[in-house]
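Q: I have two molecules that I believe assemble together. Could you output structure tokens for the complex as a whole instead of separate predictions?
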Amino acid sequence: DTGVSQNPRHKITKRGQNVTFRCDPISEHNRLYWYRQTLGQGPEFLTYFQNEAQLEKSRLLSDRFSAERPKGSFSTLEIQRTEQGDSAMYLCASSNRGSLETQYFGPGTRLLVL
Amino acid sequence: DAKTTQPTSMDCAEGRAANLPCNHSTISGNEYVYWYRQIHSQGPQYIIHGLKNNETNEMASLIITEDRKSSTLILPHATLRDTAVYYCIVRVVDGAGNMLTFGGGTRLMVKP
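A: Yes, here they are, computed for all two components at once.
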């Protein structure tokens, strides 16, 4: 299967710990997006990359959040000093600029902060 | 904020057509209508998109009104596996990598 993959699928951590999530986009997709989804709500945009450049960040992305896409392939999203309010599903999507930019989503990483 | 309005929930009998409406009265000329769905605990799944013409693929049909202020997603023969939250999204496609802005969506329950 060559879809978007995310790891881990689930993460339980204690408040104050750091966590890192990984997203592997569809190969040859040059755009990669991160979204966050809390229970009962639709996904909300966090940030996006075109190749290795981070081009846009939402105000939801506080200083404790950092995202990278070092070689323009996979991406990581790190949350430092986690808080209970960070508990959510973190979704990754990728798109190809040349195909009307339809975004395809991964299965998500569900984070629970205790 | 989402630029679309959808009913909160709908029911449909298995085997019947499911017609999901969406209002987007402030849509701009360069904005497409996209539909995604999200089955419980999974990532959103792309269904279909259109600009002004009706579109059909293996999953669904998209009917866009002539004034483009509303659209309807049609699942011709709904199955239990179509139970999901369906999101209607309007989005500019101009090469700038625009994000998707999700609203609350419509929770479709397909019943036996």
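A: One point stands out. The radius of gyration of chain A is 13 Å.
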